[in-house]
Amino acid sequence: MKTRNFVLSVSLPLAVVAALLAIWTAVWMSGVFHASALPAPTEVIRGFKEEIRNGRLITDLVTSLFRVTAGFLLAALSGIPIGLWMGQQAWARTAFLPIVNFFRNLSPLAWIPFAILWFGVGDAPAIFLIFLSVFFPLVLATMAAAANIPAVYARVAHDYGLSDSERLVRVTLPAIMPQVITALRVAAGVAWLVVVAAEMIAGRDGLGFAVMDSRNGLRTDLLVVAMIVIGLVGVAIDRVLVQLTRIPSVRWGYER
Amino acid sequence: MIPERYRIEGVSRSFGPLEVLHDLSLEILHGEFVAIVGPSGCGKTTLLNLLSGFDKPTAGTVVRRGEVRMIYQQDGLFPWQTVAENISLGLRDVPSETERNRQIQELLRLIRREAFAHHYPHQLSGGMRQLVELARALAGESDILLMDEPFSSLDYLTRLRMREELARILSERPRTVVLVTHDIEEAAQLADRVMVLSECPGQIRYQLNIPAPRPRDPTQPDVVRAMHLILTKLNIEHNSGEYADAR
Q1: How many CB pairs under 8 A join A and B?
Q2: Neighbouring residues of A58: CB distance < 8 A, sequence distance ≥ 6
Q3: To pair with B8 at 20 to 30 A between CA atoms, which of A55, B54, B66, B90?
Q4: CA distance linking residue A177 with residue A167, whole number of Å
C-alpha cells in the first residue's frame, strides 16, 4: 500500500506535466500563434543547453539568489527584533503600527523608480526592493506573535525565577518561532517574485534581466528557459525553508 | 519552628472600584491540603495570585514560609520543550547535570511516565500534561503547591484518575497544597480543609475540616457527607435526607 502511494505520488504529477507538454506541442503545431510568439518544446531544450554552455544561466541564477538572500537576511535580522519590540511594548504598537501597515500595503514595485534614482542599477536596488518586501510583513507577523504569547508562559517564567534574558531566550523566542517561520516562508516567496520584477527594470543581470533580455532579442525559447528556472527555484526555496518547520521544538506550532 | 506555611491577615484586594477580596484572614499549616471553592468571580484566582506572590494585596498582609510552585488550569508546560526539559525547569538550582538528570528520572518514575521523557507536550493527553506539570512543580526544594483548577479541562473519568494520582504522589512527596476548584467533589475527596468563599467581594463564608485520612475514595461516606455540607452551605442542597442530622 505504501509503495503504491509512493508510485502514485510520483506518476500522477509527472502525467500532468506530460499532458501540459502535449497541449503546448499541439498548440504550437496548430499554428494559432506565430512561430515568433510561441517556441516549440524542442527549441526550449536547445535553448537550455545553449544557456548552460555559455554559462549565462548559472551566472544569472547565482546573481538573483545572492540578491534575494542578502535582502531577505537584512530584513529578517532587523524585522524580527523590531517586531518583537513592538509586540512587547503597547505604546510602540500605537506609535508605529499605522505606518508599518501603510508600507506593508504599498507594493514594493512602486519603489522601483526611487530604487533606481537612489541606487542605480545592479545589486543595490534589487536588494533594497527585496528588503522592503520582506521587512514590513515580517515586522507585522512577529509583532502579532509576540503580542499574543499566552500569559501563562510569563507566569511560569516568573514562578521558576527566570531572569529577563533567560525569559527572552527560553520563553519569548521559542513561543513566537512557529509563526515567524511561517512568515519567513511567505516572505521568501514574495521576495522571489520581487527580485524578478526588480531585475527586469533595474538590472543588467539576474534571471529577471534574462526574461527582459530574451524578449528584447525576440528569443522566446530563452524566455521560457528563464521562466522554468524561476519557477523551479521558487519551489526549491520553499522546500528548503519548510525544513525549518521540521525542527522538533517548533512542531507544536503546526500540530495544535 | 512556626508550623504555618501561610499567615494571611485582613487581606483585601481591589481592582479600581471593584473589591474582589474583603478582609480575609486565614492560616495554612505545614503539610495541610486546603481547597478553596466558591462561585465564579469570587476572587479565587486573585487569592492564588496573592499566595504565589505574583500579586500584592491592597490591604492586609500575606506572610509565606517556603518556596511556592503553581499548577495551571492547562497548557502551563512550555510546548517547545520536551517533558524532561520542562521538568528540569523546576531543577534550576541543581548545579550538576548528572544530578539533575537523576532527579528528572526520579520524578518521571513518580508520575509513572518514564517512557515519555523525550515527548513534547502536544504529543501527550491532557491528563498526562497535568501530571508532568505536577512533576515540574514538585521538583527541587519547593514546599507549597498552588493549584488553579488543575483538572477542570479534563473529562470526568480522567479527573477521577488524576485525583487518585495526585493523592498517591503527595503521599510520596508531601507538600502544603492550596487547591482552587469549582469541583466540590474534588475538594471533598482531596482536602483536609475546604473553604467556601462568598460572592464578590470574596470572604470566607464557611470552613469545613475533613478529618478522615487521605487518600480517600470519591464515594466514601466522609467525602459524601462533606459534599452534602458544602452544597447545603451553597444553597444547592435542601433536602433532609440521610446526612441532614450531620449538620
Answers
A1: 47
A2: A52
A3: B90
A4: 14
Rounded to two decimals, the ipTM of the complex is 0.86
Longest dimension (CA), chain B: 61
Q: What is the pLDDT of residues A30-50, one digit of tens each?
A: 989 998 899 999 999 999 999
Residue A57 backbone class (left: φ over 0; alpha: ψ -120 to 50; beta: rest)? alpha
Cis peptide bond prior to A41, omega within 30° of 0: no
Task: Give me A168's grid cell.
Answer: 527572552
The whole-angstrom distance between residue A203's C-alpha and the CA centroid of its chain comes to 18
- Looking at B32-36, B64-68, B128-132, B224-228, which range is the least confident one? B64-68
Interface of A to B at Cβ within 8 Å reads 150, 152-153, 155-156, 158-161, 170-171, 174-175, 177, 248-253, 255-256
A249 Cα to chain B: minimum distance (Å): 4
Q: Angle, to 10 degrees, between the axis of helix A90-104 and the axis of helix A56-88?
A: 150
Out of B89, B92, B120, the one facing A252 most closely (by C-beta) is: B120
Total Cβ atoms within 10 A of residue A152: 17
- B 106-135 residues with CB below 8 A of A? 120-122
Q: Which of B143, B147, B142 is nearest to B162 (CA)?
A: B147
Residue B169 CA from chain centroid, whole number: 13
CB-CB contact of A74 with A127 (8 Å): yes
Q: Which of B54, B92, B122 sits opposite A252 (nearest CB)?
A: B122
Range name among A106-120, A214-228, B4-18, B227-241 with the lowest pLDDT average: B227-241
- Chain A interface includes B92 (CB < 8 A): yes
pTM, rounded to two decimals: 0.87
By residue count, chain A amounts to 256
The pLDDT-based confidence of B198 (bands split at 50, 70, 90) is confident
Q: Which position has the grid cell 469541583?
A: B183
Phi, psi angle pair for B176, to nearest 5°: -80, 125
Among B54, B80, B90, whose Cβ lies nearest the Cβ of A160?
Answer: B90
d(CA A35, CA A40): 8
> A255 to chain B: which residues are within 8 Å by CB?
122
* B34–A contact, CB cutoff 8 A: no
